[in-house]
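Forgive a beginner's question, but would it be possible to get a protein, spelled out as residues, together with the matching structure tokens, please?
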Amino acid sequence: MKNKTNLFRYVLVTLLFYGTLISSGQIPDSKTDPNKNNKINSTESTGSTRVFFASHSLMWYVPKPLGVLSQAAGFKGYQLAGVQSIGASKTLAHWNLTENKNQAKKALQSGKIDVFIMSPISFPDEGIENFIKLGLKHNPKMRFVVQLSWGGGDIDNQDFPKGAFTMVDKEKTADQLKQLNQRNIKACETQIEELNKKYGNGKKIIAIVPSSQAMMAIRTKIANKEMPGLSKQRELFVDAVHPSAPMEALNTYLHFAVLYHKSPVNLPMPEKLKSANRPDWDEKFNRLLQEIAWKTVTNYPPSLVSEK
């Protein structure tokens, strides 16, 4: 009976997450940067940064909180140009969406997008290259970002969707965590390296957000009892796949760091984390999430972010 109840809850959550298309508006002007000592290797603080997301459910909670962080950090040019959301989607599914519904293609064809952010699942994904070619055709100065997501049900995303929705034991050892999603990570890095060489004209225009690696990092801290505020790895999830408030915050910090090449440390706590009604999820806990995000990004060369 307990298993049936868990299954019902999971199916309900999945149905709620798996929508079709979502669009968003503009982000208001920002305030003074509270973290001036961190170097940024870009011009977004003074120029326009029009961002479009082609997303599945492991990323579609990022855009609006990212805008709030951008505002707090003093990046006046940030504009959320749109979000195209398809549940459990490979990037190719976004590319293959019918023309009348394909807001991602329309946005790139306008030439008014500066950064296009994708969340593939398995690699290689033909949709990534298709969107890069289309984007560069209409804006040769574009940048692209790929989120490297963790595997649902702790599978390797190269096997998706096999086993992706199985309720699993999340309490893994540190050694077990090191093995998670390794084939997917390698396949992602291989494709993005090839595309940077093919389309970058000597530069790297495609960055990877190491969401899978950050998930392993925080779960390892929990396993080693080094993460105050979290005693069980399953607290990072609302089901077998989707993140709870701390992991949503962590992933948003990763995106901030990759977008701006700047540390998220000292930025305000996201509203969802603040309203979770967990006294132990306080400012100190939030800072730990920010530090994990910055360390993960700066220690991962394909993010194109350096600590210096």
Notes: Residues 1-46 have pLDDT under 50 and may be disordered. Residues 19-303 form a domain with the Rossmann fold fold (CATH 3.40.50.1110). The first strand starts at residue 49 and ends at 55. The CA atoms of residues 155 and 164 lie 6 Å apart.
